[in-house]
Amino acid sequence: MGAIPSARSHPRTRLEAEPVPESKHRPPESELGPLAARALAIVRLRLFRRAVLVLILLASVIVGLETYPAVDDRIGGLLRTLDTVIIGLFVVEIVLRMVAYGRRWPRFFLDPWNVFDFVIVAVCLIPVGSQAAAAFRLVRVLRALRLLTSIPQLQIVIGALLRSLPSIGYVGMLLVLLFYVYAVIGTTLFGRNDPAHFGTLHDAAISLLRAVTLEDWTDLMYTQMVGSEAYPGHLPPPTEPEPRAMPILAVLYFGSFVLVGTMVVLNLFIGVVIGALTEEQKAAADRALASAAPTDADAQLERIERQLEHVREQMQGLRGALRNRPRP
């Protein structure tokens, strides 16, 4: 008997294009009738998914072209005809996906991504008058968001962002606290020299937002270093400033804020999102392995290797805990 090829000999990048994972709400194929089974086979076709992706891109391009008056005057009728055809094809796609659930078609709406697609397509079917044409165009451009459901890798990114929201909230609280402390200090130190940027607490907070995004933050620092008379700001001061040069305090204030706010706190946001993205990629890979065919030897072997790796990590943690445990 030949050796089973190792899954590691065929590495898979988790963000590579691969078949869309099956919905956990879909009934087993054994419970589907002939029509539902046929619809499911069509929905699973790679060509079907690529065709839907092309339609989404084409619909987005049409909405963009209609924003040019010259293009709309020349081929506006053709664009609207194409748009009507695309909407009809979207309806056919949604119907096929619902039929693929068989008699349990209401379970189609248990998947949030399915609800997302259904709502966008349904809104495009609402008849509107000429006065609401601009609003209708805004609704139609939302069809570009269907790329989120057509490209699994985008679903991973969205899932990672949602997973990271709690941690981002805590990092945001830290950033708000940093802004508040530095705004109070800046108002106290530089309020008289530069009342346009540090005259009030909210003015100071806006100036710090400008500094943390590195948008001409050095101009703010130079005004405090040499005084507002030698280096006036861009905004007209609400009151008459009292020029005062504070070179050392200005360098310490802005240098520490930019270092902490930009290099540390904002990088925390990036670190949190990257960590959540790694977890979401691992979860997506696990779901793909769980939905793999039982006869897929590579998928079975990769699933077992993942389980063994998880067991090894737990054993290492237990060994470390035992080594660090105080001896009686």
SSE blueprint and pairings:
Elements: H1 34-44, H2 46-65, H3 69-99, H4 112-124, H5 133-141, H6 147-150, H7 152-190, H8 195-198, H9 201-212, H10 217-226, H11 247-290, H12 297-324
Task: Output the keywords.
328 residues, mainly alpha, Four Helix Bundle (Hemerythrin (Met), subunit A), Helix Hairpins, 2 domains, flat, disordered N terminus
How large, in whole angstroms, is the Cα Rg? Answer: 29 Å
**Pairing-aware structural class of the strands and helices?**
mainly alpha
* Helix-strand sequence: HHHHHHHHHHHH
Second CATH tier, the architecture of the largest domain: Orthogonal Bundle
User: What is the helix content?
Assistant: 55-70%
* CATH level-1 class of the largest domain: Mainly Alpha
CATH fold annotation of the largest domain: Helix Hairpins
State which percent range the strand residues make up.
Answer: under 5%
Unreliable spans are: 1-20
Largest sheet: none
Average pLDDT number: 79
According to DSSP, the number of beta strands is 0
Based on Cα principal axes, name the global outline: flat
